């Protein structure tokens, strides 16, 4: 299996969509009653959280990448 870069924003988005699916699966199974409009804030809030996570991750990686790049050019 090829290694790839870990992307926490996608992880958060996947967990939110899994939670939304669980909510509707519980409703379909009769475990609880879920109004149709509950999914909208769940998905929108989750996507906003995933976007914020991806933005923070990108900022951290860009900042640490510049530090590594700066050190390697000074040394060699």
How would you describe this protein?
It is elongated, with a radius of gyration of 19 Å. The mean pLDDT is 88. It has a domain of 42 residues. The chain is mainly alpha-helical. Keywords: Membrane, Transmembrane, Transmembrane helix.
> Rg from C-alpha positions?
19 Å
Helix and strand composition category = mainly alpha
* Oligomeric composition of the shown chains: single chain
Give the % helix. Answer: over 70%
Compute the number of helices. Answer: 2
What's the short version?
The chain crosses the membrane at residues 35-57. Keywords: Membrane, Transmembrane, Transmembrane helix. The chain contains 2 helices and no strands.
Overview features:
mainly alpha, transmembrane helix, membrane, 76 residues, 2 helices
Q: What's the topology here?
A:
Blueprint: H1 8-29, H2 39-75
Helix pairs in contact: 1-2
